[in-house]
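Two folds, back to back.
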Amino acid sequence: MAYSTTVYTQPDGSEVRIIHWADGRKRFNAMPGVRTRSDLIKLRNFFSGRAGKGHSFPARDLSDFEFVDTDPDAFVQFATYATGTSTYQLVKQYGDAAGVDVRAITKPELGTVQIRWGGGVKTEGTHYSINYLTGVVTILVAPANGTAFEVAGQFWTPCRFIEDELPSDQVFYHLIEKTSFGQIPTIGMIEVKGE
């Protein structure tokens, strides 16, 4: 996770910190998934299909892809019904008692998401709909004002490659040598916000 914060040190030694982003951006390395020449060819084709860092794609963050980290079937509140409001963004909360980061989930995984309120799991298409490209839930059958909406399931993280160049010769050399001697190439990816 990466944040963007500028720190200014004052003449008396105190600091002024300016936090530029509301929440952090995740960073990934695709290299651990490349173990064979066949993997490298698949990555090369995928990289070319995205025009390097030109187009984003959904990626699985193996450390964070469920609404409740400890139990994929557990539900957690993401919104509270307010009379007259029918759309709600899926979110996930991070942090502790000292600070909370509320992160918009924009790429819920089709076939895994369940929404419930009023004590029961509701039916997609009857009680609610989900835009799987934005993570926006539209309530089709309004509950009582103040009703908590809960979600369970999985999601993707929208990413792009960090570089426009794939170090395939270095990756291939590393695969042939089967050694970690020297610099292992990085195939960096970074989370894309607003997609």
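---
second:
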Amino acid sequence: MHSLISRPFLSFTLAVSLGLALFQGCATVSKVSGPQEGDYVQVSGGESPEWVDNAKSTAEFKVFVGLSRRHAAEADAPTAARRSAQVEAVNSMGTYVKQKVKEALGSEGSTEDILSAAVIEQTGTKMVAEGIITGEVDKWYVTQWKKFENGQWRPYYEAKCLFKMPREDASKLAQEAIKQAGLKAKEERDRKNLKQAQEVLDGMDAQDW
């Protein structure tokens, strides 16, 4: 019995099917190879300088590296990087002050509830805002990026900074944090311990910070 479908028709059908498959494959490859929503590409700045991953403190300054996320407004990136470094510096000083107070008191008593991390952090943040604790940016590294959004590339900026904090500022924070804790202390024992710690830490050079 002869087939109802002729050979020329089968050849034509196979050719069309193969052509459609190839076309769809090419379309898929083209779609994947293009930029995708949310893609970032660095367009300037080059490789990070050595200090970004290998910041070195000195006898006078303790250094921190501030980092920003990528911002659409160029001015926002350095501001965020500097703030990041200041927060890290205050947190580091807070940990240091807490440890020095503990060492100063020894087994004489504890101020754990009075001189809390929150008190030290709040005091440090206030001193930064008032310019009592200063610090300065020694170096900047700013890179420009482009981000694919809504079918087009848009510019973004990212900043890193090398932030120098004078070691003597740790001493300033210690004294002020103890003072603020003393104002909140209700127990005579706590006030006595804080006063003792303040006397011991008075004039410390913070070289071990």
